[in-house]
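Checked the freezer inventory, then went back to the computational side. Two predictions to log before the end of the day. The first one is the construct we discussed on Monday; recording sequence and tokens without edits.
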Amino acid sequence: AAARLAAEQEVENLSGLSPNPEKDIFVVRENRTTCLMAEFAAKFIMITEQADIPLARGAEVTGKCGTNESELEISWLQQAYTLKLFFLKEGHNTSREQEAFWRLSQVQFTYDTKEHTYFKNTVSPRKHTASSRHLSALVTPAGKSYECQAQQTISLTSSDHQKSVQLLLSEVRVQPFDITADFVFSEEHKCPVDEREQLEETLPLILGLILGLVIVITLCVYHIHHKLTANQVQIPRDRSQYKHMG
């Protein structure tokens, strides 16, 4: 069964298709159809070690797709660094019906301090794992992809004396379930930060259009009123002036 699953599963790193050199595109396919897609730029901040570790392009990828659980695993620099993203689809009851959604439920980052690209003069170098706790991120309605251009920070706690590690994600587009077209994301669900920034960008334009419309309407009303009053015959109030009329 495992051999059959391996034969049926295809995992691809399509980072060469991204115009951003810091962003990768990952695709998991089963039974010749896409079941998970992820596109993002990622960097790890090792606060106590003063090390910034980017996710290298051309990383090795594995993945698992399920009805309610999916997983994406990315390794680079000869597996000195491994990022695992766990996704969960579930539902909750509302006043009308049950609504399904998916979320990023867990993040694990394994790093080897024996690797000298980012770690220098480390005491007792070995592998450590940093994990998230009670994570509920990238929450998205079922059947949609998650999109967020803004940078997001996910805090992880390391097994290395409980040191803090931060995962920085940006330019994110992810869909771990319900992909209906091969290599194509479904309709996007934008993150609140992007929606707020978009509103801040368009609000001045909308206010400007409304102000311009008010000015035009005011000028039109003034012009019509002035034209009507100019055409009216002015009747003198002093009766002595009636003899000059006619």
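The second is the one RB wanted added to the comparison set:
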Amino acid sequence: MPAQQKKIIFCVAGVLSFACALGTAAALGTQLWVTGTILCKTGALLVNATGQELDKFIGKIQYGLFYGERVRQCGLGGRPFQFSFFPDLLKIIPASIHVSVILFCAVLMVFALVAAGFFMFNAFGSPYETLHGPVGLYLWSFIACCCGCLIIVLFSSEVKIHHLSEKIANFKEGSFTFKTHSEQFANSFWIVLVCSLVHFLNALLIRFAGFEFPFSKAKDPGTTTGAADLMY
């Protein structure tokens, strides 16, 4: 592949990696990882609520990796409550998994920036054979992709297997019991997933930059024929 096309591919990959670093940083600081609704089970059972009556006992919840908000509904209107994971919820959540998710997010940002820098260096500089060349680009992209996948797996297990939403909903609730009515992953979660896919795509772009296409091959001057050949 001509050098100009390789530069374009490496520039595109570098921009994508940099965008992933910014996206992960933005996602890390928001509370839009999980959104859902919570049912005040105790209140609904007390009045034997059914059908549309249950709407008066369904509140809302949304949270990220550091903080969140829940609105409890127990028949007397919504009551918002702000909470923080550190240090409020450390005793009721799987702290090791939660901290691991945050650490992998930080590692993902670092290696996304590293990958972006090396992509740009390969596009405009003179790459070394290992760290700056294809081996290094594969390495940085692979590490970033693995970190993104680990974030998705660990956070999903924390929410679904360890019932994180219910634990948060029942935080500091003595007489009332809350149950998850619905929950779904929000924008920040999907941003991290897209970043993982982008780093996998970057690995394909590295391989794509190594292909030679027929239309990109230069013509051999020795095989050129023309009117001068016909003269002899």
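For RB: The chain is about 55% helix and 15% strand. The radius of gyration is 27 Å. Let me know if you want it refolded.
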